[in-house]
């Protein structure tokens, strides 16, 4: 079945360590996104990519990095510079441009806890 | 101008009640307004969406009401059921920005 796969589902990290969250999609979508979810704050955009080898910062990019070397993959690295990394991270994809209805397809999320 | 403001933050209703969730936006360039439903531990999924050229859209028990002049839109859930208990997000999309702006979310609990 087509969809978005995020891994790992749960991740624990010590302070000062970098961690990479995986996001893979087989929907043949060009655009991919990373959101962070915290209670009472909705979904905040970290980074997004409209096409391979290109990405843009979202609203809260500080302390995060991404790459988009393949259409199917958009990994997110949470670096030690991120001051409050404990959160639920959601990856999504969509069809960009005029064909886009604005619908995003989400993965099931990765919950990161910093100990 | 890129914000979408959503209220209330949480809502408790009895089974059969009609919960209403409200959202407001400022950017008139937005041209697509979806609602997403999220169950605990899962990613959000599209529930229903509306474009600003219509004032109301209904799909099953879910209805969006849209007031373009007031720049507000709301979600109504008719005959709510315990299975509707979830977090609901409104959002706004403009092709120029190429990204979806979400409201803060409403945690709905429907009591049996």
Structure description:
The complex is a heterodimer of chains A (115) and B (112). With 115 residues, chain A is mainly beta. Chain A contains no helices and 11 strands. Chain A has strands spanning 4-7, 10-13, 19-25, 31-37, 43-51, 54-57, 64-66, 76-78, 87-94, 105-106, 110-114. Helix content of chain B is 0%, strand content 55%. Chain B is globular and about 45 Å long.
According to DSSP, the number of beta strands of chain B is 11
Structural category of chain A is: mainly beta
Mean pLDDT of chain A: 91
Silhouette of chain A? globular
Count of helix runs of chain B: 0
Low-confidence stretches of chain B: none
**Main sheet of chain B, how many strands, which sense, barrel?**
6 strands, mixed
Please trace the helix and strand order of chain B, writing H or E for each element: EEEEEEEEEEE
Oligomerization status of the protein chains: heterodimer
Straight-line N-to-C gap of chain A: 36 Å
Structural class of chain B: mainly beta
Q: How would you describe the shape of chain B?
A: globular
Summarize this entry quickly.
Chain A has 115 residues and is mainly beta.
List the helices and strands and how they pair.
The complex is a heterodimer of chains A (115) and B (112).
Chain A: E1 4-7, E2 10-13, E3 19-25, E4 31-37, E5 43-51, E6 54-57, E7 64-66, E8 76-78, E9 87-94, E10 105-106, E11 110-114
Parallel strand pairs in A: 2-11
Antiparallel strand pairs in A: 1-3, 3-8, 4-5, 4-9, 5-6, 7-8, 9-10, 9-11
Chain B: E1 4-7, E2 10-14, E3 20-25, E4 33-38, E5 45-50, E6 56-59, E7 62-67, E8 72-77, E9 86-94, E10 99-102, E11 106-111
Parallel strand pairs in B: 2-11
Antiparallel strand pairs in B: 1-3, 3-8, 4-5, 4-9, 6-7, 7-8, 9-10, 9-11
Provide keyphrases for this structure:
heterodimer, A: 115 residues, mainly beta, 7-stranded mixed sheet, 4-stranded antiparallel sheet, 11 strands, 0% helix, globular, B: 112 residues, 6-stranded mixed sheet, 5-stranded antiparallel sheet
């Amino acid at each position: 079945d087509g969809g978005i796969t995020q891994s790992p589902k749960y991740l624990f990290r010590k302070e000062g360590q970098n961690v990479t969250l995986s996001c893979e999609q087989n929907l043949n979508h060009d655009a991919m996104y990373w959101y962070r979810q915290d209670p009472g704050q909705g979904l905040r955009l970290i980074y997004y990519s409209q096409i391979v080898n290109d990405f843009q910062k979202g609203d809260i990019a500080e302390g995060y990095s991404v790459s988009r070397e393949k259409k199917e993959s958009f990994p997110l690295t949470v670096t030690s510079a991120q001051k409050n990394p404990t959160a639920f991270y959601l990856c999504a994809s969509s069809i960009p441009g005029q064909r886009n209805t604005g619908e995003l397809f989400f993965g099931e999320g990765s919950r990161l806890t910093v100990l | 101008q890129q914000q979408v403001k959503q209220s209330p933050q949480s809502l408790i209703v009895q089974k059969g009640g009609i919960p209403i969730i409200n959202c407001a936006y400022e950017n008139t360039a937005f041209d697509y307004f979806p609602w997403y439903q999220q169950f605990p531990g899962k990613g959000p999924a599209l529930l229903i969406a509306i474009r600003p050229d219509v004032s109301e859209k209904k799909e099953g028990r879910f209805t969006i009401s849209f007031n373009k002049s007031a720049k507000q839109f709301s979600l109504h859930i008719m005959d709510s059921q315990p299975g509707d208990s979830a977090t609901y997000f409104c959002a706004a999309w403009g092709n120029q920005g190429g990204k979806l702006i979400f409201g803060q979310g409403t945690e709905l609990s429907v009591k049996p």
